[in-house]
Amino acid sequence: MSIAAARASEAAAVSTHWAGTRKRGDLLAAIAFLLPNLLGFLVFTVGPVLFSLIVSFSNWRLERTVPFQWIGLGNFRELFGTEEFWLYTINTLYLMIGIPIGIAGSLALALLLNQKLRGMIVYRTLFYLPSFTSGVALFILWKALYNPEFGPLNALINTTIHALHLPGRGPEWLSSTRNVLGLPVEHVGFQMRQWGIGARDAILLMGIWTGIGGGNMLLYLAGLSNIPPELFEASSLDGAGKWATFRHIIWPQLAPTTFFIVIMSVIGGLQGGFEQARVMTGNGGPAGTTTTLSYYIYTKAFEQFQIGYASAIAWVLFVAILAGTLINWKFGSQYTEV
Amino acid sequence: MRSLFTVLLSVLGLFSVVAARMQAPPDHKLVWISDDNPRRKEQIELFNLDQKQGLLNIPGFPANPVDGLKLDPNNIGMEKVIVQSIGGVGGDLFDSSGSNSLSAYVRSGVALDITDELKARGLSITDIWPAAAPSFVYDGRVYGLPCNVGVDTLWLNKDLFARAGVPLPERRPWTWPEFLRLAHRLTIRDADGHVLQYGFLADWGSLWQTCMAQWRGHLYSPDGKRCIIDSPEAIAGVLFAHDLIYKEHIMPTPIEEASLSGQGGWGQGTIKWFGAAKGAMALGGRWWLCTLRDQTHPTESGNSHGQPAEPTLRITAVECPYGPMHRFVCYCRSALVNATSPRAKQVIDFMVYLNSKPYNDLINAQSDALAPMRKYCTTPEFLKNPAYPEEDYNEVFRDVMAAAVPEEASLFADGQVVQQILDVQMDLVKTNQKSVPDALHTARIKIDAEIQRMIAADPTLRRRYNQ
């Protein structure tokens, strides 16, 4: 080896060593800065999540008279054998019926608000305004709207019925256990006399309204603004109509946004219903028809103090959410590659 | 950038060390977890003042037991109390309403057994209204003392009676048929059949329980091992309550109740509707006066709504009608001692105050239901409070209380679960979607299953159940 080559080799070795040292230094610094957050995440998020998984295999109750025992899959067996669980799962899924309607509505609204008209910013602000209102305030407002005697909704329905000389009157909304699918109150199935409009439908309608003008609309607006204008120009030159433009350009271009919204809505839907049950219908009433899985977890854990059992419900819900997300991922991701 | 972050991190670390060293001045006041009620604040103020001035001349009460008492209304709610107490950060004493709450607190180990401590202080519970016992006595042991007790009577709106030309009923025991005759005359409808004024208003939960007790119905068998809520007697009682809505049409259906809630900002609840003169008679307790005094008592400066000083509501009270049995259901709010409190002994000292004359007189004067000690409900000040001369009906509450029965509880059932089962079934009855026999039969089956689940989980209970 020549002297020059030896020097070059030595310089390269020093440089590699220095770069490695610097990389290690950067890594340590990064870890040090991330550590407070990371510790908090581990202690207050990962820890409780794992803890809840462990206790879901126990009979842990806050009552000291019941000795602590590991019961394996006992909670899960009991859970799947309880009619209550299936009824509340159906309630949860029922409230999710509105998700596609809400998504379609927010897309339609975004398309309207994407027009180049004067004062469009004002319209956009107005439509997004309800999202700033606190949930509880909205629920109280909707409770008043659903008042069967004096609420504006029934006033409109009753006036229409009266004008058309039709029999009947407006629905009982939050006071009724009826529903458009005719689901019975106490068992899984169908019952003709349960057919109608009731508390579940009232919450469902409110959910659609909330879903249309909120964050989904904003996401679609952002998605629309990202579509390259050349595509519209090309379609225009090709003589494409509005429907063809929507079908062949807008809809495929918005696929990643739709994919994201569907996933988030399904997750939110499976976790939802707690505040509505608490504020609008008392304690998940009438007769448990607005009790969702998240409210069921609360009842079992913090009203009946069956922590092990409540943890089991939480993990079943988690698996359901995971499964829903994976299904979405599998069948939805193929449309997102534009 | 790295230097900047390092400096920031060091400064934050320094602040944390300083903050950890700076401790708040010690507060030795006992913390009472109770509702944010003006009456409660007055009760605490009286205790703090009397103790400070050495006026608490109560047998068994130490000279200077505590540094005072303070209210914590933010942590009220059974779930918070139990979780915080188990975690060692709960209040020193907390409220408990009814036997279901008491059993949950005892079974979770956060309520302290004070039976022996009370005995050591020479304090007896025999002077307390006996029907209140299930709210502070569990399985023969004492876990607290009642703060106030209540029973429902019938409130009457004198003006609505006068307007309808109906004479006020006499203050004597009377039956439901006698009551119905009046209630029908006092239920007024417009030409379209819409009700303008109801003859009777009642909270559904209180009504069906009262009727069930009066018709000799029971929730549990005497040994508490079985649910017997589908007995013919219980069915007859609940059916009578149901018929008051759907057959007699003298009280609002749930839909009509929802409509009442939305009108003119009266708010929700029977008490508000009665205050707004939507019903001539209403089933309720003496504690209603806490709200209604604004309207019933003339004030010089006008009432809290800024309305004229003359009373806007003239009311009186008579016994609630009775059925086959002359009995009424008692309810009670008790204060329990947190078993994990480091100042549990001092809390028990405070408990003595709840049995004292100053406290009991204050409860009666405030109309915060009835004083827990019977003897203070016979005093001339209680029967005729000079500050509220229009309240000439206090003996009604005392007399009805004497005929009150305790709320039912079973050692073998989780009261919270039972309550949830009953809520669902009684919701269905109230909304007329399920017949009373069917609903009570379902409730019985579910409660019995719950009892079996409880004894399967708890070996001590199982042994006692099998004895």
What is this structure, in a nutshell?
The complex is a heterodimer of chains A (338) and B (467). Helices cover 67% and strands 0% of the residues of chain A.
Question: How does this model look, in words?
Answer:
The complex is a heterodimer of chains A (338) and B (467). In chain A, 67% of the residues lie in helices and 0% in strands. The model of chain A has no long low-confidence stretch (mean pLDDT 89). Chain A has helices at 3-55, 74-81, 83-95, 98-113, 120-128, 135-145, 152-163, 199-212, 215-225, 229-237, 242-253, 255-271, 274-279, 293-303, 307-332. In chain B, helix 2 (38-52) links the parallel strand 1 and strand 2 (69-71). Chain B is globular. In chain B, the strands form 3 sheets. In chain B, strands 1, 2, 3, 6, 12 and 13 form a 6-stranded mixed beta sheet that branches. Chain B has 467 residues and is of the alpha/beta class. Chains A and B meet through helix 1 and helix 14 of A and helix 1, helix 3, helix 10, helix 17 and helix 19 of B.
Number of helices of chain B: 19
The Rg value of chain A, from CA coordinates, equals: 28 Å
Instruction: Report the helical percentage of chain A.
Output: 55-70%
Oligomeric state as shown:
heterodimer
Content-based structural category of chain B: alpha/beta
Number of helices of chain A: 15
Distance between the termini of chain A: 55 Å
Please identify the structural class of chain A as seen in this structure: mainly alpha
Low-confidence stretches of chain A: none
Question: What is the percent of helical residues of chain B?
Answer: 40-55%
> What is the tally of beta strands of chain A?
0
Instruction: Determine the mean pLDDT of chain A.
Output: 89
Basic shape of chain A: flat
